[in-house]
Amino acid sequence: MNKSLMRYLLFSVSCIFCWSCASDYRYMEAVETNTDCISKLVPNQFNTSWYHASVDVVGKHISGLLLIKNMPDSSYRVVFTNEAGVTFFDFGFTRERSFKVYNIIKQLDKKPVIQTLQKDFELILGLPFRGATYQTYTMKEEVFFGAKQKKEIAYFITSKDCASLRRLELGSSRKRKVTVHLKGQQYPAPDKIELVHYTFNMQINLTRFEKE
């Protein structure tokens, strides 16, 4: 192999490597925080709601009914059962971000799964956005309101004109980890929630319904 071809191949490989390492947030630009937009669209409340739920986790598919219950003390219970009433998991979340596992089936009773579900539902419930201090950025035609979470950042993302809430995300300083897509009616009782993971084998789909 001649030297020119070798240099070309090394350059191509290095470009591919650098592109794969590029930050998902590399085009963000810091802007002044719009407090009016936050008060209008921040997803920090969740009404009691029933959902048809589909969860794919570590190669297992489970479906059933999921209840998000807003308790009198402003804590939440998140209970996922099948049609026969068997409980897949029953979690508690307080306003102060403490978390309790009341019940979970053996197949899901693994520390990485529980920790991931905890973060997922904290994001869905909007807990990272309660009383948060925000760093605000624009990227393309969207505004990212970021709340620091130890080594991660939780974002709620709006249109540039603050007309609508687009989605929620959890990421590191460089990489997107979780996206929560919203369809139909939004907070405090979203019609449809689709949660997509990029670093863990789990997907969650929730469709709200009225329970008689």
Task: Please tag this protein with its features.
single chain; 212 residues; alpha+beta; outer membrane lipoprotein receptor (LolB), chain A; 13-stranded antiparallel beta sheet; 3 helices; 13 strands; 19% helix; globular
Care to describe what's here?
- This protein has one domain: Clam (outer membrane lipoprotein receptor (LolB), chain A), CATH 2.50.20.
- 19% of the residues lie in helices and 44% in strands.
- The radius of gyration is 20 Å and the shape is globular.
- The longest helix has 18 residues, at 3-20.
- By secondary structure, it is of the alpha+beta class.
- The N and C termini lie far apart (74 Å).
